[in-house]
Amino acid sequence: MTRNNEDFTSTLPQFPESYWLHSIHPIPAFPKLTKDLSIDVVIVGAGITGITTAYLMAKKGLKVAVLNAGRIMEGTTGYTTAKITAQHDLTYSEFVSHFGEEKTRLYYEANDEALQFVKNTVSELGIDCQFTEEDAYVYTSDDSYIKKIQDEHKAYEKLGIPGAYADAAPLPYETKAAVIMKNQAQFNPVPFLIRLVQEIVEMGGQIFEQTTVVGADLEKPLIVKTKHGPKITCHNIVSASHYPFVDFKGLYFSRLHTERSYVLAARTEKPYPGGMYLSAEDPKRSLRSVLLNGEPAVIIGGEGHKTGQGLCTFQYYEHLQKFGEEKFGLRDILYRWSAQDIYTLDKMPYIGKQLPNVPNLLLATGYRKWGMTNSIVAAILNTKLVAGEKSPYEEVFNPQRFHSDPDIKTFMTQNANVAMQLIGGKLEETRKDAGELAADEGSVVQLNGKRAGAYRDLSGKLHIVDTTCTHMGCEVEWNEAERTWDCPCHGSRYSLQGDVIEGPAKKALAKVDLD
Fold first, then answer.
1. Backbone φ/ψ region at 440: left (φ over 0), alpha (ψ -120 to 50), beta
2. How confident is the model over 332-382, as pLDDT tens digits?
3. Torsion angle (degrees, nearest 10) of CA 248, 253, 254, 259
4. CB 509 within 8 Å of CB 485
5. Residue 202 CB: number of other CB atoms within 10 A?
6. What are the φ/ψ torsions at residue 13 (nearest 5 degrees)?
7. pLDDT tens digits for 488-506?
8. What is the DSSP string of 309-363?
9. What are the C-alpha distances in Å from 401 to residues 91, 191, 240, 251, 369?
10. Helices (H) and strands (E) in the chain, counts
11. Cβ neighbours around 174 below 10 Å, total
12. Strands 163-166 and 83-84: what pairing?
């Protein structure tokens, strides 16, 4: 796809970069694990889930070690829109119909508790992280969605959720209905988590970067294995690595799917009205305010699609750019980034005991783009489980659950899609030759009669990889906006050199010799 900004007054940044990760320098660095350890709890993943879990467990006196394959916070946590809200799209009317009022109310209460935890922690530790309380809106500009908004408000009333219904949202363009959840919040997650990291270290917790976990022995005691050899013996393991790092008999790869969505951070001509907004209809439009270098700006998000199945990925940024131009008038776009999120079969996260016969292997995944609260729910719940404490939320989020409605239908649909992608990738014709690629261009190509992935960097050097995903053999596709190779089956992502960026894959793509 040829990118052309001639129709826009603003220009998209050439390379993706998250404002959150850029806003704090330097982010603390930690060593690689180089020797065997024995410890109480190993937490795999150093995003908001893993860091908050380590913080809460360390406060209970447990000896914790956090392992991360790359740098801390550089997974989905660093690429969020950072809304801290229990308003998760038009969720509650749907959940009431599937799970009943009691479980749906518990879902709300768990996420509200998470919001209060962040609020209280910011206050207690004096964290400067742009934390502000805001009302959250799900709105529509489409007549066909008005009843859905009304049904959601009725669900709020049934469940006792503080909220309101409005005939319009206070946005600078026409809207026709909105459901409001009062006193929600937004923040910058990076300084918040940096402070928790400092607390973890002061309490004796250990954090290791550039340490890839490749498996675990689940006999007693548990043993966590890392790519470069060192092992950790422990009493409990928490998988907070977005995608479960160990999947034995759980078959979570068949019960999860991944989606990508896109974000712009821009200064606007029109003033922002305050509040946080999400459109009910697709394509989604997410809005919130932010201070960029002390100046007011707007974060515009949306344009979701399944990982590896969005062709010409730059178009999603351009759609957000066009929306911003039309609705707010964009002075300039300072940052653009995208995020990967995981969905469960029934849209509720999987939090708790991963396998029925291994009570000390705990899981946290499937936040469905609402990770700023669901991650805290996971940290609180899994900490209680490790400490042997009761929680009213254990059954609601139990990873081993399976509902006939909607799980069976979603299971069949998602796995049929995986089969289609697997077969389609093997049969896809590739007509482009690696020699035809221009600088900063990537593509699936034919090389010596075989399918390969090629990218020519700005210096003219070709990087060529085998396009067969190392997880289950699907064929990866080129993501031009992020310059990555993405798997359309289970969401594994690789750098242009073939290194794993996001699982479930653990091994890099094979490199291909041009000769």
1. left
2. 999 999 999 999 989 999 999 998 888 899 999 999 999 999 999 999 999
3. 170
4. yes
5. 9
6. -60, 145
7. 887 889 988 999 888 788 8
8. --SSTHHHHHHHHHHHHHHT-EEEEEEEEEEEEEEESSSS-EEEEEETTEEEEEE
9. 19, 35, 19, 13, 21
10. 10, 24
11. 8
12. unpaired
Q: How is residue 489 annotated by DSSP?
A: T
Map residue 400 onto helix, strand or coil.
coil
Q: Hey, what are 382's tokens?
A: 């899994």
Residue 336, token pair as written in the block: 């653009």
Q: DSSP alpha helices (H): ranges in 387-462?
A: 394-397, 404-427
CA 224 to chain centroid, in Å, comes to 24
Residue with the two structure tokens 């989905």: 76
Eight-class DSSP state of 11: -
In whole angstroms, how far apart are CA 370 and each of 7, 87, 219, 434, 496? 33, 9, 34, 40, 29
Cis amide linkage into residue 189, ω under 30° from 0? no
Q: Decide: 44 and 224 in contact? Cβ < 8 Å.
A: yes
- SS3 state of residue 110: helix
Structure tokens at 424: 């389609």
